[in-house]
Write a structure and sequence with these properties.
The protein is α/β, with parallel strands linked by helices. It has 2 domains: about 220 residues, Alpha-Beta Complex (Spore Coat Polysaccharide Biosynthesis Protein SpsA, Chain A); about 210 residues, Hexapeptide repeat proteins (UDP N-Acetylglucosamine Acyltransferase, domain 1), CATH 2.160.10.10. Helix content is about 15%, strand content about 35%. The longest helix has 21 residues. Bound molecules: uridine-diphosphate-N-acetylglucosamine and calcium ion (CA). The site of uridine-diphosphate-N-acetylglucosamine (UD1) has 27 residues, from strand 1, helix 3 and strand 10. The site of calcium ion has 2 residues, from loops.
C-alpha cells in the first residue's frame, strides 16, 4: 500500500505557557513529535510530512531527518486547512494517515488496524470517554454507521451526550482527499476548516467509514498543558517499568524509575529506587544499580555494582567493578575489569585498567592508569594549566600516596611509589620511592596564641 503520513504540528499550545513549541516538549526524554515520527516509521510510509507553523524554525531544527516533508501552515485555519497544506507532498493514490504531533503514545498495532479498516474507505480512530467534553463527537445512524463528526462547540445537547469521540487520527483515501478538503467550509462555531467534515463528505459519496478503537485510552491522549504532559510521562514510565519487569529486571519500585532514552538490561539486573537513565544505557548481566543514581550514555559490564548516589555520563564501566557511593564518572571515563572507584572520586577522560583502585576523594582527569594501581585519598591530577590539558600516565602496580598532586604532563613508572603529600612535577622512575615533602620540624619554643581578654 502507498502510505503517506501527515503529522499536524502547527498549533501553538498556548496552555503550555512555554517558549518551546508544544510538540518539542519531551515525554520519556523524547520530543512529543519524535514519538509520533518513530511510530509512523514503523508503518514504512512512502512519505512523512509535518505541518508546522508556530515556532517553525525551532521545530525544523529539532528534526533534521533528511526524509521529512515540511508544509508550512500560516495562518492556522483549522485541521482541514492544515492537511490541505500537505497535499503537494502526498501523491495521488493510496492512503493518507493523519496523526497529531501532540499525541505521542499511539501504538503501531493500533495504527495498523486503522489502516486495515481503511482498505476500502475511510477509517477514524475513536474512543469512548466517561467525560467527552471538548472533543468532536461521533454521530452514528440508526444502523450504527458513522455519518459525521460534530465538534463540541457546534453540537446540540443530544449530540453532546454522545460519549464516543474523535481522537483526530484518521486514514483517508488519498485520491479523494483533495476534493473533500476543497469542499470544506468554515461556516461553523469556530470559523475553521474542520478535517472532521470529510467524514460527512465521504458518507455523502457512499464511501464506507469505519471506526476503530485503540487497546488503551492512553494511546490517544494528547498534550495541551503541563498537567497532561506530566500525566503522559507517568504513563510512559509505568509502561517502560512494566516492560523491564517482564524482561526479568528487578526494580525495587516500578513507580520510582525514570528512563529517558533506551535502557537495555541483561539477566538478573537489579535497579534500586530513584534512578534516572538518559540516552543509551546498557547494563549487562547481573549489574546492580544502587538508589539515586543518574546514568547517561553509559555501558556497564557484567557483574559491576554501582552504589548509591553516583553520576555517570558518557562512560564505560568494566566487568565486576565497584563504583560509589557518591562517585562521578564524566565523559571519557573507561574502567577496566574489577576497578574500584569510591566516594567523592571524579574521573574524566581517563582509562583505568584492571583492578586499580581510587577509593576516596580524588580527581583523575586526562590520565592513563595501568593495572593494580592504588590511588590514595586526596590524589589530584593537575591536568589543566589554565590554557591546555595534559596527560598523566600511571603505569601498572604504581602506588600513589595520599594527598598527591601529579602535575601533568608527567609519568609514574611501573611499580613506583609516591610518598604521601608529593607534588610530582617530574617523571617518577619505576620501582622507586619518590617523595617531595618539606622536612618535618618541631618547634619547642613555640607558644599557642591566646585570645585577648574582653574588656
Ligand atoms: C480536534 C478535532 C476533534 C477531536 C480533537 C481530538 C477537528 C476540527 N477537531 O479538535 O474532533 O476530538 O481534535 O483532540 O479536527 N492543528 C494544526 N493547524 C490548525 C489547527 C490544529 O496543525 O490550524 C493541529 C494542532 O497542532 C494539534 C491538532 O491539529 O496537533 C489538533 O488541533 P486542536 O486545536 O487541538 O483540535 P481540537 O479543536 O482539540
Ligand atoms: Ca487538542
Amino acid at each position: 500500500m502507498n502510505l503517506n503520513v501527515v503529522i499536524l504540528a502547527a498549533g501553538q499550545g498556548k496552555r503550555m505557557h512555554s517558549n518551546l513549541p508544544k510538540v518539542l516538549h519531551p515525554v520519556a526524554g523524547k520530543a512529543l513529535v519524535r514519538h509520533v515520527i518513530d511510530t509512523a516509521r514503523t508503518l514504512q510510509p512512502a512519505g512523512l510530512c509535518i505541518v508546522y507553523g508556530y515556532g517553525g524554525d525551532v521545530v525544523r531544527a529539532a528534526l533534521p531527518d533528511a526524509d521529512l516533508g515540511w508544509a508550512l501552515q500560516e495562518p492556522q485555519l483549522g485541521t482541514g486547512h492544515a492537511v490541505q497544506q500537505a497535499l503537494p507532498h502526498l501523491g495521488s493514490s493510496g492512503v493518507t494517515l493523519v496523526l497529531y504531533g501532540d499525541v505521542p503514545l499511539t501504538q503501531p498495532e493500533t495504527l495498523q488496524r486503522l489502516l486495515h479498516a481503511a482498505r476500502d474507505g475511510l477509517a477514524v480512530l475513536t474512543v469512548e470517554l466517561t467525560d467527552p467534553t471538548g472533543y468532536g463527537r461521533i454521530v452514528r445512524d440508526a444502523a450504527g454507521r458513522v455519518v459525521r463528526i460534530v465538534e463540541q462547540k457546534d453540537a446540540s445537547s443530544d449530540e453532546r451526550a454522545i460519549r464516543e469521540v474523535n481522537t483526530g487520527i484518521m486514514a483517508i483515501p488519498t485520491e479523494r482527499l483533495a476534493g473533500w478538503l476543497a469542499g470544506l467550509s468554515n461556516n461553523n462555531a469556530q470559523g475553521e476548516y474542520y478535517l472532521t467534515d470529510v467524514i460527512a463528505a465521504a458518507v455523502a459519496e457512499g464511501v464506507p467509514v469505519a471506526a476503530v478503537q485503540p487497546q488503551a485510552e492512553w494511546e490517544v491522549l494528547g498534550v495541551n498543558s503541563k498537567v497532561q504532559l506530566a500525566e503522559l510521562e507517568r504513563i510512559q514510565q509505568r509502561r517502560i517499568a512494566q516492560q523491564l519487569l517482564e524482561a526479568g529486571v528487578r526494580l525495587a519500585d516500578p513507580a520510582r524509575i525514570d528512563v529517558r532514552g533506551d535502557l537495555s538490561c541483561g539477566r538478573d539486573v537489579a535497579i534500586d529506587v530513584n534512578c534516572v537513565f538518559e540516552g543509551r544505557v546498557e547494563l549487562a548481566e547481573a549489574v546492580e544499580i544502587g538508589p539515586h543514581c543518574v546514568l547517561k550514555n553509559v555501558r556497564v559490564a557484567a557483574g559491576a555494582r554501582i552504589a548509591a548516589f553516583c553520576h555517570l555520563e558518557d562512560a564505560v564501566v568494566g566487568p565486576d567493578c565497584i563504583v560509589g557511593p557518591y562517585a562521578r564518572l564524566r565523559p571519557g571515563a573507561e574502567l577496566g575489569p574489577e576497578v574500584h572507584i569510591g566516594n567523592f572520586v571524579e574521573i574524566k577522560n581517563s582509562t583505568i585498567a584492571a583492578q586499580s583502585k581510587a577509593n576516596h576523594l580524588a580527581y583523575v582527569g586526562d590520565a592513563r592508569v595501568g593495572e593494580r594501581v592504588n590511588i590514595g585519598a586526596g590524589t589530584i591530577t593537575c591536568n589543566y594549566d589554565g590554557a591546555n590539558k595534559h596527560l598523566t600516565v600511571i603505569e601498572d602496580d604504581a602506588f600513589i600516596g595520599s594527598d598527591t598532586q601529579l602535575v601533568a604532563p608527567v609519568t609514574v613508572g611501573r611499580g613506583a611509589t609516591l610518598g604521601a603529600g608529593t607534588t610530582l612535577t617530574k617523571d617518577a622512575p619505576p620501582d622507586t620511592l619518590t617523595v617531595s615533602r618539606a622536612k618535618q620540624v618541631s618547634l619547642a619554643a613555640w607558644q599557642r596564641p591566646v585570645k585577648k581578654p574582653k574588656k
